[in-house]
Amino acid sequence: MLKILAALFLFMPFQFAMAEYRVFELVIGNPQTKEQRIVRSTLDPFQYPGYYAVKNNESVLYQSTWMCWGDTSQLQPLCENPNPSSKSLDSK
Question: What DSSP string describes 12-69?
Protein backbone atom coordinates (compact mmCIF):
# COMPACT_ATOMS: atom_id res chain seq x y z
CA MET A 1 0.00 0.00 0.00
CA LEU A 2 2.84 2.37 0.84
CA LYS A 3 4.47 1.71 -2.55
CA ILE A 4 1.23 2.57 -4.35
CA LEU A 5 0.87 5.84 -2.44
CA ALA A 6 4.50 6.71 -3.10
CA ALA A 7 4.07 6.02 -6.81
CA LEU A 8 0.92 8.16 -6.97
CA PHE A 9 2.68 10.97 -5.14
CA LEU A 10 5.64 10.84 -7.51
CA PHE A 11 3.60 10.83 -10.72
CA MET A 12 0.83 13.24 -9.69
CA PRO A 13 2.74 16.44 -10.64
CA PHE A 14 2.89 15.27 -14.26
CA GLN A 15 -0.87 15.64 -14.51
CA PHE A 16 -0.51 19.35 -13.85
CA ALA A 17 2.57 19.97 -15.97
CA MET A 18 2.31 22.81 -18.46
CA ALA A 19 3.96 22.75 -21.84
CA GLU A 20 5.10 25.55 -24.05
CA TYR A 21 5.73 25.73 -27.75
CA ARG A 22 6.88 28.26 -30.32
CA VAL A 23 4.77 29.41 -33.25
CA PHE A 24 6.53 30.57 -36.41
CA GLU A 25 4.91 32.82 -38.96
CA LEU A 26 6.51 31.84 -42.26
CA VAL A 27 6.35 33.53 -45.63
CA ILE A 28 6.48 31.10 -48.54
CA GLY A 29 7.26 33.03 -51.67
CA ASN A 30 8.01 32.48 -55.30
CA PRO A 31 10.49 35.11 -56.56
CA GLN A 32 9.54 34.49 -60.20
CA THR A 33 5.79 35.05 -59.85
CA LYS A 34 6.03 37.35 -56.79
CA GLU A 35 3.30 35.28 -55.10
CA GLN A 36 3.47 34.93 -51.31
CA ARG A 37 1.48 33.08 -48.71
CA ILE A 38 1.70 33.21 -44.94
CA VAL A 39 1.70 30.04 -42.88
CA ARG A 40 1.67 29.65 -39.10
CA SER A 41 3.37 26.52 -37.86
CA THR A 42 5.33 25.02 -34.99
CA LEU A 43 8.00 24.11 -37.54
CA ASP A 44 10.82 26.56 -38.23
CA PRO A 45 11.79 27.59 -41.79
CA PHE A 46 14.33 24.77 -42.02
CA GLN A 47 11.98 22.03 -40.82
CA TYR A 48 8.86 23.11 -42.75
CA PRO A 49 9.95 21.94 -46.24
CA GLY A 50 10.72 18.50 -44.81
CA TYR A 51 7.11 18.00 -43.73
CA TYR A 52 5.09 19.96 -46.27
CA ALA A 53 5.32 20.29 -50.03
CA VAL A 54 7.24 23.38 -51.09
CA LYS A 55 8.07 23.85 -54.76
CA ASN A 56 11.73 24.01 -55.78
CA ASN A 57 11.44 27.64 -56.84
CA GLU A 58 9.78 28.72 -53.56
CA SER A 59 11.58 30.02 -50.51
CA VAL A 60 10.49 29.70 -46.88
CA LEU A 61 11.38 32.73 -44.77
CA TYR A 62 10.83 33.47 -41.11
CA GLN A 63 8.68 36.54 -40.46
CA SER A 64 7.67 36.41 -36.80
CA THR A 65 7.67 34.08 -33.82
CA TRP A 66 6.15 33.93 -30.34
CA MET A 67 5.82 31.56 -27.41
CA CYS A 68 2.59 29.87 -26.44
CA TRP A 69 1.67 27.91 -23.33
CA GLY A 70 -0.55 24.91 -23.34
CA ASP A 71 -1.25 21.71 -25.19
CA THR A 72 -1.24 21.21 -28.96
CA SER A 73 -2.36 17.59 -28.90
CA GLN A 74 -5.69 16.56 -30.41
CA LEU A 75 -5.27 19.20 -33.13
CA GLN A 76 -5.73 22.18 -30.83
CA PRO A 77 -5.40 25.47 -32.74
CA LEU A 78 -2.17 27.46 -32.39
CA CYS A 79 -2.35 30.52 -30.17
CA GLU A 80 -2.60 33.98 -31.68
CA ASN A 81 0.28 36.43 -31.82
CA PRO A 82 0.29 38.35 -28.50
CA ASN A 83 1.86 41.32 -30.28
CA PRO A 84 -0.32 41.83 -33.38
CA SER A 85 1.29 45.22 -34.03
CA SER A 86 4.48 43.47 -35.12
CA LYS A 87 5.37 43.72 -38.80
CA SER A 88 3.20 41.33 -40.77
CA LEU A 89 2.35 40.89 -44.43
CA ASP A 90 -1.30 40.46 -43.37
CA SER A 91 -1.46 44.16 -42.49
CA LYS A 92 -0.24 45.30 -45.91
Answer: GGGGG---EEEEEEEEEEETTTTEEEEEEESS-TTTHHHHS---TT-EEEEEEEEEEE
